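User: Structure please.
Assistant: Input sequence and predicted structure:
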Amino acid sequence: MHNTGAGNTKANKEVIKQKHQGTQLQMHYKKTVENIQNIDWKKWCNEQENSNTNEIHQALNDTIQTCIEKIPVKPRKKEQINKPYVNKTLLEIRTAVEKARKRFLQKRTENNEKRYKEIKKDYNYKLKKARNDYFANKLQRYNKDSKRVWNTINNVLNRKKEQIDITEIEFKNEVIKDDKKIANTFSEYYKNSAYERVMNIVKESNYTEFLKQDEKQKDTFILKNISQTETWKYIKSMKPKTSSGIDQIPSKIIKMSASSLVTPITKLINKCFEEDAFPTELKKSKITPIYKQKGEKSPGNFRPINQLSVLSKCIEKAAIHQINNHFKQFENKNQFHTIKYCFK
């Protein structure tokens, strides 16, 4: 495949990589989007005319990767205590408290002490009331969003996420400390654990006992090619997250470059539907194991956080939309209950 244009050449990127070696890098979204917009995507699609699903995905992934620009991460400033419920009135009272305190320290009389304690008590009462009112309003506003509710509760209780480095795990009576072996152990465990549990289920009946041959639906379902307008809707329906799957392409970049990437992504989706195939690389995901509870170090005590490629999500959205529309015709005819054995 010919290079259809990108921001920096490979040589320039190698110089940048060596210059910032050992420095943590972050994506420069504006420059990356500009590089993607400079690609001649119509020419790119013509070059992929005779390519299969895997080849088109690989070419698209490689082209986007050449467009990605990264810059050194700027050190964060020391975070100040954020108290949004502190208003101008409370700040004025706090200033008065400080003045009364200094006056009492300079001249320790009974009147100065009494005055200082009164102002301080009034300030603490109003501060506590303002804090309670602020978080009560937030909880009432987020009552239908459980994630925001728990974030608010954790903020009230000053709970902070504890990051635990996984230095070793125990699996099949063996203590594993090598990083690569730990990663492979987690991968194998998560791939096989669900299958093994299903195989251990005692089956009371077989599907052939309740599925009758004469009830088989005669109509078939085929995924049809979609338009760029539909692809645009699927891209825009995704949240602009900075996290990414194994391909390191965040959904934020795809959304920001939607006007340019809608053409190649539509090409990829339609090729998948034409060949009844799914790109092999998109079947992989990035899994982050999170402790369920401290103490036990077996893989079963870690909750897997799964991150899929954003391109995978685009294909899935296009497929599920057509599948849902197909089954709606049976809902209208009151036939859906007879064919829904494996569909969710």
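Residues 88-156 form one domain.
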